[in-house]
Amino acid sequence: MTDDEQKTTEEPETADTTAEVPEQAEATEQAEAGQAVAVETEPAEQLSPKERRRKQRSTHSGEARPQRSPQERHSERVASRKAKAVRRRARRLQERDKRAAARAARGGEVVSPTPTAPLHPPAGEPVRKVRQGIVVSDKADKTITVRIDIARRHRRYEKIVRSSSTLHAHDENNDAHIGDTVRVIESRPLSRTKRWRLIDVLERAR
Question: Fewer beta carbons within 10 angstroms: which end of the chain, N or C?
């Protein structure tokens, strides 16, 4: 085979390769465009508030705050809590006024909110527990053993569940005897087991 024949046979191949190159370029461009569209259509990453704050702190490039002592940190926390409490109280009052205005607009009678009982007793006035029970022993001097019977309805099965517990109460005058129904009140520790004190005898044993 001569050189001219080899040239004639090679020319079509070069033409085919040049024709294939634009097609491959177009295919790669389309694939890249498809990937870009896929990236754009993907939903944004859902971060929790904690992770969002952590991400913001990690991207923060400002100057660091000066170091503070534990007392300064505590005072800042107390001040921020007080400010939040003031805002919270104002918000609740605003919502209460809004509800009252809505009731008035509907034609309902506006009733001033009644003051609720305080959740905790005033300082210096402790509320002592009072229990009523039956004396089961009076052998010890100035001490009685009282059985407290409890009957409550079960929350799930609605059955009456009965139980009892015993406690030791201080009886200064040895007034109560076995079988008496007595009332006792909580007191300071009077001995290793006595934390209650006799108030009065409600019913004597027959």
Answer: C
